[in-house]
Design brief:
422 residues; alpha/beta; Lyase, Ornithine Decarboxylase, Chain A, domain 1; TIM Barrel; 2 domains; nine-stranded mixed β-sheet; eight-stranded parallel β-barrel; 13 helices
C-alpha cells in the first residue's frame, strides 16, 4: 500500500494508519485484532467519535447534540458520545434502554418515530425524557392518556414535515409530503393548538428531520426557514417554545471522490436563520458521528472465476452489512495487509444464499488469497445496527479502540443464542 493510498484512507478517518503495509486503527493492527477475535469483526475508533461530537459543539455553541442511537446502538459507543456531553435521539424503547445503559441522562433524550407503542411510551414517560417528537394527532391523544394515567406531564414537540427534497436516496428521505414521517407543515399549527388543550402534555419544542446522508447542506436552509417561520407564529400565539430540533442527516464520505460536509458548513448555512430565536437548538447527528469511526473486517474464504467474472468470497455478508444489498450503497474496500500484488477487478461477495449478497461489485482491488483479510470502510453506522440472523448466522463481535488500547464491547454470538426458543 503506497503513501497515496495511505493518505486517502486518512481522508475517511485520520486515525487509520499503515505500518509495514498493514492497516492500523488508533495504532492497533487490524490483522492482529481479527486474529484475536475472529471475523467478521466490527472495529470502532473512540477518538474519531469524540472528535466528531466536539466538531458539532464547536460549530453550534450552546446547542444540545443528541447522538442518533439508530446509527449504532452499542451502549459503549453511546457512552463515548455521552462522555463528550452528547444526549441521545431515539426511535424505540430498545434505543431508550441502550441510551440509558450508555449513561445518557433522560433529560438529554429526545424520542421520535411514527409507531411508538404503549409500553415504549410508558417507559419513556416514567424516565421523564426531555421531549417526545410527536408524529401524528393520534399519538397526541395516546400520549396524553398514558401521561395522565401515570400522573405525569409529557413534554412534546411536533415533528413537522417541511416538504423539502433532501437530494438523497429515496429510502432515507424523510421530509417530503409523501413520507410517512411527521405532520404536514400546513396543518402543524392545528396540532399545536390541540396539544395545548390536552392537560397532560406540555408543548416545549418544534422538530423536523428531512433525511439522511445529505452531502449538500443547502436543503437544510429551506427546512430551517420554515421551522423558524412556524416558531415565530407559535410564539406570537403565546406558545413557549424552548427547543428547536433541526434533526440530523449530515452525510459522510463513502467513495474516495466524495466530499464530506462538515458541521461548520452546516452552521454557516443555518445559523444566520436562527438569529433572534431564543429556543435552544438540538441536532441529531448519527451517521456523521460513527459512520467513518468503524470498519468491518472480513476474511477471504474462497476465490472463484466464472469466465467473465472474478469473485472474492469472504465471511461477511448482507446479514452483517446490508447497505450494499438494499441501497446499492458503495463501501470502499481495501486489503488489511498489502502484499504488493497486481490489481484485479472482482465482485466481493458473502456466504448468504442470495444473489444480492455482495459488499462490492466490479471493484478494483489488490489480488487476494484465501486467508487474507479485507477492511470495509465507513461501516460504523447502519452496519451492526441493521445486522440480522439470516441463514442462522451469528452477528459479529464489536471492538472499541482508543489511543493504542482496545476492548471487546460485544461478544460474537453463537448458534445457541440464535436458536434459544425457551
Amino acid at each position: 500500500m503506497d503513501s497515496t493510498q495511505a493518505e486517502l484512507l486518512k481522508e475517511f478517518n485520520p486515525y487509520i494508519g499503515v505500518k509495514n503495509g498493514k492497516l492500523h486503527l488508533e495504532g492497533l493492527s487490524l490483522k492482529e485484532l481479527a486474529q484475536e477475535f475472529g471475523t467478521p469483526l466490527y472495529v470502532y475508533s473512540a477518538s474519531y467519535i469524540r472528535e466528531r461530537i466536539r466538531a458539532y459543539q464547536k460549530a453550534f455553541p450552546g446547542a444540545l447534540v443528541c447522538y442518533a442511537v439508530k446509527a449504532n446502538f452499542n451502549p459503549e459507543v453511546v457512552r463515548v458520545a455521552g462522555e463528550e456531553g452528547a444526549g441521545a435521539d431515539i426511535v424505540s424503547g430498545g434505543e431508550l434502554v441502550a441510551a440509558l445503559k450508555g449513561g445518557i441522562d433522560p433529560s438529554r433524550i429526545v424520542y421520535a418515530g411514527v409507531g411508538k407503542t404503549v409500553p415504549e411510551l410508558e417507559l419513556a414517560i416514567e424516565k421523564e425524557i426531555l421531549m417526545f417528537n410527536v408524529e401524528s394527532r393520534d399519538e397526541l391523544y395516546v400520549l396524553d392518556e398514558i401521561a395522565g394515567r401515570l400522573g405525569k406531564r409529557a413534554r412534546i414537540a411536533i415533528r413537522v414535515n417541511p416538504d423539502v427534497d433532501p437530494k438523497t436516496h429515496p429510502y432515507i428521505s424523510t421530509g417530503m409530503k409523501k413520507s410517512k414521517f411527521g405532520v404536514d407543515f400546513e396543518t402543524a399549527r392545528e396540532e399545536y393548538r390541540l396539544a395545548r388543550e390536552l392537560k397532560n402534555l406540555e408543548v416545549v419544542g418544534i422538530h423536523c428531520h428531512i433525511g439522511s446522508q445529505l452531502l449538500d447542506v443547502s436543503p437544510y436552509r429551506e427546512a430551517v426557514q420554515k421551522v423558524v417561520e412556524l416558531y415565530r407564529d407559535l410564539t406570537d400565539e403565546g406558545f413557549e417554545i424552548n427547543y428547536l430540533d433541526i434533526g440530523g442527516g449530515l452525510g459522510i464520505k463513502y467513495k474516495p471522490e466524495d466530499r464530506e460536509p462538515s458541521p461548520e458548513e452546516l452552521a454557516r448555512e443555518v445559523l444566520p436563520l436562527l438569529e433572534g430565536v431564543s429556543a435552544q437548538i438540538i441536532l441529531e447527528p448519527g451517521r456523521s458521528i460513527t459512520g467513518n469511526a468503524g470498519l468491518l473486517i472480513a476474511q477471504v474464504q474462497f476465490l472463484k472465476d466464472k469466465e467473465i467474472k472474478h469473485f472474492i468470497i469472504v465471511d461477511a455478508g448482507m446479514n452483517d452489512l446490508v447497505r450494499p444489498a438494499i441501497y446499492d450503497a458503495y463501501h470502499h474496500v481495501v486489503p488489511v495487509e498489502s502484499k504488493g500484488r497486481e490489481h484485479i477487478i472482482a465482485d466481493i461477495v458473502g456466504p448468504i444464499c442470495e444473489t444480492g449478497d455482495f459488499l462490492a461489485k466490479d471493484r478494483r482491488i489488490e489480488f487476494l488469497e484465501r486467508g487474507d483479510y479485507i477492511a470495509v470502510l465507513s461501516a460504523g453506522a447502519y452496519g451492526f445496527a441493521m445486522a440480522s440472523h439470516y441463514n442462522v448466522r451469528p452477528r459479529p463481535a464489536e471492538v472499541l479502540v482508543e489511543n493504542g488500547s482496545y476492548r471487546l464491547i460485544r461478544e460474537r454470538e453463537d448458534y445457541n443464542y440464535i436458536l434459544n426458543t425457551t
